[in-house]
Specification:
Layout (H helix, E strand, L loop, with lengths): L1 E2 L4 E4 L5 H8 L16 H11 L2 E2 L2 E7 L5 E8 L8 E7 L9 H16 L4 E7 L3 H9 L3 E12 L2 E11 L9
Parallel strand pairs: 6-7
Antiparallel strand pairs: 1-2, 2-4, 3-4, 4-5, 5-6, 7-9, 8-9
Length: 177
């Protein structure tokens, strides 16, 4: 587990599966910038059963508040074999938990942990152009804007731009545990 002041990050337990699948697939809570991707439940459960959502090319941690309530998730994944590093993705499941600083702390902890535990030079993430809240979270954690991927994702019936932000190992504060 990774402990912060506001949040705790931990890997997924089998007892979490039903709740997190329900939270992940609740479209009413996603917001206008979320790229709607609903995994099939059998594939979701298979991902846990095969590797516990944690292996070399993919990892998922849950974000818990101080009461122990699951409020979100943060993931890493290898998006192309030729790229050095990982892409990071994150979400707070319910609207009432957004804007409280949970994700900034979670991303800072997770980024530092990945650099401490993996031989990688960089992390990157993408945000839908116009999602100022998500971009602010990334920039607060040291991620820098690297470019725009034009019409790179399909959202609400149209193609939208994605902004690419990156963080180098030397720009990431160390993990304080």
């Amino acid at each position: 587990m990774l402990q912060g002041n506001k949040v705790c990050l931990r890997t997924v337990r089998e007892s979490d599966l039903e709740l997190i699948y329900r939270l992940m697939t609740d479209v009413s809570e996603k917001g206008e910038h979320w790229l709607l991707d609903i995994p099939a439940e059998p594939a979701f459960r298979r991902g846990f059963n095969e590797r516990g959502f944690w292996h070399e090319n993919f990892g998922r941690m849950l974000i818990l508040d101080k009461t122990g309530e699951i409020i979100g998730e943060i993931i890493y994944f290898r998006n192309a074999d030729y790229r050095a590093g990982y892409e990071v993705g994150y979400q707070i499941f319910r609207r009432e938990n957004r804007g409280k600083g949970y994700m900034s702390e979670a991303l800072a902890l997770f980024s530092a942990f990945l650099f401490e535990s993996k031989p990688i030079p960089r992390l990157q993430l993408t945000v839908v152009a116009g999602n100022e809240a998500s971009r602010a979270v990334a920039e607060k954690c040291g991620y820098r804007y690297e470019g725009t991927l034009r019409q790179a994702a399909f959202l609400a019936g149209k193609y939208v731009d994605l902004e690419l932000l990156g963080l180098l190992r030397e720009d990431c504060p160390p993990l304080l545990v």
